[in-house]
């Protein structure tokens, strides 16, 4: 069942669970994620990252994810992740994405609000949802091991931002990072709770790959309703291929089942954890 982001995140916030957002750059990865979601009886988000377009072009991504989502037995949102330009996000909406993440986090507050509010107006008119970002989520290589609050999302700003943009979900900066962690990041769970109370909409945690189970549970209990996973799923797909070759597989028809199984196991572990 193809849905937008609001349709699955609003119930998640009320039910105090999180929906898994998985960047799937191949048909096999998308199939595995939907299989895992079906087994767990949970909604799921298939995401395209604008920065991975050279690996999987947008039109190609939609060619396999939209039919899969439409035919799935669980709710599936097809999400355009980290859209950096207004025109790119509009193209994504017209192409069929049911939600977009318009990332204006590097803009000043006023420009961020202005640009996101305009896109939200268009998206809502098309029946789609908008996620936007407030604060800076760094690359894992930028972490120092200390709780550096520079660039973190401020609760009062989050309240005003949501009121002025009318977005459906807010991506926050609270200590996580994108990529592979060298050590566990220090996440500000008190800040998550404060933002959740102030913004009063579903919150998104970027940089979910590599977090501990305890960190996931505390983040969800604090108000996170959507968790982004790319690195862990990407590694799982590669490990499936490595295992297949190590087992003597020499053709793609032999390799693909290993890849699907490895990704499905990884996705199922996350979905099971996120649903509590």
Task: Give your account of this protein's structure.
This protein has helices at residues 5-15, 27-40, 58-71, 86-95, 109-125, 155-165, 189-199, 213-222, 231-246, 252-274, and strands at residues 2-3, 19-23, 44-49, 76-83, 99-102, 129-134, 169-172, 203-205, 224-229. By secondary structure, the chain is of the alpha/beta class. The protein has one domain (2-274): Aldolase class I (TIM Barrel). Strands 2-3-4-5-6-7-8-9 form an 8-stranded parallel barrel, surrounded by 10 helices. α2 packs across α10. The radius of gyration is 18 Å and the shape is globular. 50% of the residues are buried.
What are its keywords?
alpha/beta; TIM Barrel; 276 residues; 10 helices; eight-stranded parallel beta barrel
Q: Which SSEs are present, and which pair or pack?
A:
Layout: E1 2-3, H1 5-15, E2 19-23, H2 27-40, E3 44-49, H3 58-71, E4 76-83, H4 86-95, E5 99-102, H5 109-125, E6 129-134, H6 155-165, E7 169-172, H7 189-199, E8 203-205, H8 213-222, E9 224-229, H9 231-246, H10 252-274
Parallel strand pairs: 1-4, 2-3, 2-9, 3-4, 4-5, 5-6, 6-7, 7-8, 8-9
Helix pairs in contact: 2-3, 2-10, 4-5, 6-7, 7-8, 9-10
Short description:
The protein has one domain (2-274): Aldolase class I (TIM Barrel, Alpha-Beta Barrel), CATH 3.20.20.
